[in-house]
Amino acid sequence: MRKTRRLAASAIAAAALLFIALTLSGVSPSDAGVLGRSPGQWTPDKVGVIASLSVDKLAAAPRDPSNAADGQPGAIALGRALFNDSRFSRDGSVSCASCHAPDKQFQDGLPVAKGVGIGTRRAMPVVGTGHNAWFFWDGRKDSLWSQALGPLEDRVEHGGNRGRYARLLQTHYKTQYEAVFGQMPVLEGVTSDASPLGTADEQLAWQSMTARQRANVDRVFANMGKAIAAYEKSLAYGQSRFDRYARAIAANDASGQHEFTAQEVNGLRVFIGNGQCVTCHNGPLLTDHAFHNTGVPPPDSARPDRGRAAAVATVQADPFNCLGPFSDARPEQCSELRFIVADDSALEGAFKTPSLRNVALRPPYMHAGQFATLEQVVNHYMQSPVAVLGHSELARGKGDSHAERKPIRLSQEEARDLVAFLATLSGPIVEKGSQ
Amino acid sequence: MTTRLFATTLSALVLASLAGCMTPPPDLDLSLQHPTQDNKFVVALQPPETPAAINQIHSWQVKLSTPDGAPVAHARINVDGGMPQHGHGLPTRPQVTRELADGTYLLEGMKFSMTGWWEIKLAIQTADAADKVTFNRVVTDSATR
């Protein structure tokens, strides 16, 4: 008698265990066997998480107070022309579109960018970047317009200089420029190759100019960035298959949920569950816009990239930052720069979380294109190796403050499902607000 | 016995699930007014009435008083924090930029980059005393609208 009761108790407990396990995994018992085929398979909290990733939840990018030309159709049109104009480079061979090619997801498909020389990091996508606070993998720029100025003078990217660019703008784009920014400053006496960041000759030429001439060139150069930023900001991600699925889930629409295969449903479950991807890849752009060291191996472990740690002083000292003389913002509008994290050891070897929109269309991956496939990326997170430089937030057994983070443990099947899910994030790129 | 076994199973499972990355611990003290660690001060945090969106920089107010309720002026307050379950700190370095009234301070530069459990740690220093206090905040997505 006692034995029977104990058996019954065990059976009830086992059933309860199964029920609770299924509930916790986000799958309700009635649907456990038919994943991807029926509505109601997500618990309400998971429905909320899925909805939070949908492009429907993406508000319009906030206006950049440091760029008065932001959103102006004339600036967008000028920016598009400049973006595609290879005269703005040392040898006339490189435009922004060289590494941010519209037919390649505004990237170049290469591990590290190739301009007039070879860079050290992967070209970033420019789509959806109006939502960013920091630019480049290390966030060494604090606005899209200031970001656009960096590659133009970088030795291995465009390789040109602001003196020449100001002259080129005056020659080829004066009317469009003045329609947006007002009268172009006088550039008389400006040497055509001059910059404080250029070659020794260019720096010498820069120093030989008057303060007024330098300020005029800087003004035209900054406005060039503002026009390019206005254009880049008009590029947005459209709806993906995931977004249609998320919409169907939110509406409890059974037919809409057939957008996803059972494998993709399971991949999404891993993404927001034990894969912990959503920890950093959150919100409609699937990024927290923050900097993390996840132990991604540097291409050259003898010379590891310090990432964010080396960028903080750079952006603080940048004359083209939000607090600088070419910004249109009031100082109190420069909150990100004013409240920048400057002295945290977690910045060492940290890079910005990239958006996962269209990620399957944009190999290779990571800040120096270290991984050719998404399978390799997922495998990296499953391995969670110790960082070569700094401390990986994911690495096990190091650093007390990370003790509460659970390791990412996935089966091979879950890893495959996750990769299948990532491909559902692909959608069109749309240009908004242009003439 | 059934009840006990069920209860044990339940608590074990709940415990296991809460170690995950999405769910904050159930027993978090979410109150916004605390005595400090060594009971030298009482601190009340006041977030904006309408919660800020994820990744939107915003300001809070900090009210600092003695245990018997007298406002504490001219304190130096340092702010730190992060997400204990994710192993990272705050995405900004919030700062007390002004004392709005005796014992009421403006805390600028607050930002939460994701939903979930965040800790906000204040280190308070006056001419006579120093103490610390930690607050818990669970940021939800509803706050983004």
Give a structural overview:
The complex is a heterodimer of chains A (435) and B (145). Chain A has 435 residues and is mainly alpha-helical. Chain A folds into two domains: 29-58 and 239-307 and 348-428, Cytochrome c-like domain (Cytochrome Bc1 Complex, Chain D, domain 2), CATH 1.10.760; 73-236, Orthogonal Bundle (Cytochrome Bc1 Complex, Chain D, domain 2). Chain A is 38% helix and 2% strand. In chain A, the strands form two sheets. In chain A, strands 1-4 form a two-stranded antiparallel ribbon. Chain A has a two-stranded antiparallel sheet with strand order 2-3. The model of chain A is unreliable at 14-39 and 398-403 (pLDDT under 50). Chain B is mainly beta. Chain B has a single domain, classed as Immunoglobulins (Immunoglobulin-like), CATH 2.60.40.10. Chain B contains one helix and nine strands; from the N terminus they run H-E-E-E-E-E-E-E-E-E. In chain B, strands 1-2-3-7-6 form a five-stranded antiparallel β-sheet, with no helix packed on it. In chain B, strand 8 (116-125) and strand 9 form a beta hairpin. Chain B is globular and about 40 Å long. The model of chain B is unreliable at 1-21 (pLDDT under 50). The interface between A and B is large, with 50 and 37 residues.
Largest sheet: spatial strand order of chain B = 1-2-3-7-6
Oligomer: heterodimer
Mean pLDDT of chain A: 90
Structural class of chain B: mainly beta
Keywords:
heterodimer, A: 435 residues, mainly alpha, Cytochrome Bc1 Complex, Chain D, domain 2, 2 domains, two-stranded antiparallel sheet, globular, B: 145 residues, Immunoglobulin-like, five-stranded antiparallel sheet, four-stranded antiparallel sheet, 9 strands, disordered N terminus
